[in-house]
Amino acid sequence: MSFLLGVALLCLGGGAANEEPPETNQPSSDEAAPAASDAEDADSGTKPGAEPAEPSFLARYAPAPIEGPGIRLPEPLTRLYLDASYARTDDLSGLPLVAGSAHNYRFAVGGSLAWHRFSFDAEVAFSNITTIDVTQVPGGEPLDVDKHQTATSLGDTRLGVTWTQPLDDAGQLVGGFGLRGRFPTHTVIFQFHLVDMVSLGRYVFPYYFHVEPTAILGGWSGPFGFVINEGLTLMTGPDGNFNDLHIIVPNLLFWSAYYAAVFAPVRAVALSAELSTNLQLNHVTAMYFDKVNGIFAATLDVDLQVHFGRFRVDAVGQRGLTRDSQIFGVLQYSGTNSVTLRLGTYFN
Question: Model's pTM, two decimal places?
Fold first, then answer.
């Protein structure tokens, strides 16, 4: 009897070992959801809370900053670009001792390196082909052989840094500051016959160092965006020369403002318009610079963008809107009216 009782107890114990575990040990559907989400993030290569791989609206569609002297962008993005430009001005009187007109072909390479919320920017104009048609030089009207000249040279170099930070929770309003410098690496030289009709005088254009601090604001909603810069442009020597004549270049100070609007109706195409204004803040008394006072230059840029994946093509037209934009364009060596074709790509 005791043997049968032991067998019965053993059978009951074995049956209990083969039963399914209680349902309370199984995770609920709500508890399983985060695990599924984690798996999806792992499949997509994006960790929870990480920066998205796709650039933001303004990083992708902000207007191309072209020579003249170019808007600062509110969103950091590592990029490279190549420019080919044609510019023209009909008034060279912003330069000392010379009058006439000029046009220029310019080729430049540039880019930005994004690091956290900083952007380190650089641009080098590696070729300028400048043609001048002069009507006046020191001593009066130039000889026929001097009236029309073409020179090939390097252009100026720009270096800058910007820092911006989101101003709202959605990250669609951004603000910050930028500082840029322009260095006179321009090498163009023209030659004119002197009074003896035999000797040649070398005219070295007076160039400027630029110091350009600015405040930056940008934002977007849906297919629309905007960028605003407000700051200063300080232009200072070195001096220039014409043969043995030393030309003292005055300091020039401008309040520079840029207002740009962007519309991207589809992913592959965007259009932007940018109004820039430069108001002179100081008065200069330097000899040969009598026209460089009271300048108010306004310029309109229109930029058509076409995007192919990580590549972008910009066709930018720039037009001076005021009489002083001709003088300012000469001081900047960017011309009054220009057309720029830019090919660029980005990395992230």
Answer: 0.82
